[in-house]
Amino acid sequence: LDGEDEFIHNLPAVKGKWEDYFYANLTGKKGRCIITGEEDYITDIHPLIKGVAGSSGMAKLVSIDGEATAFEYRNLKGMDNSPFGRKTTHKYSVVLNWLLSNLDHKVDVKKESFIFWTENDNEALLENLQKVLGRPFANEHPADEIPVGEKFYIAGLKASTKGRLYVAHYQDFIYGQSKEILQEFLARISSCYEDS
Description:
Strand content: 15-25%
Structural class: alpha+beta
């Protein structure tokens, strides 16, 4: 690896070999992932997501009581109703937990945690998003602080109970329309909290 600047575990060839090894040794029920459409081993229990405001500190984004008949559909029970592949489950849980633990990508507003990210991890844009999201109730939303020309994303996570989460808000912002869409998004967030 002479002349390489990256860690060995970040090299695409090494990552590919590790994923091949890891997924070749999985066992369990196989099925079609509801998110990707690919055949995969189906997740039995989804991992805990940590750090969402209003939750117990650890909660699940996806959970189904396997014994409850209310969650049966066409004789499908438990996670067979919404079969997530293990690759998908691993990816969403790692990314959400990382974003929620990283203060450069998270702002708590009342009982909601907003996470945000850019395609190129633009630090200046992330700082501006943090400022803007930190004051969604201002009469004038400072969308002028957001530079035009980069794609970014915002998701708002809330606790429906102490142990369960849901995505309350989501918006992707495209090149050139960011300011207008952000103004509308912030106005929607503010209206959700007017009575609370």
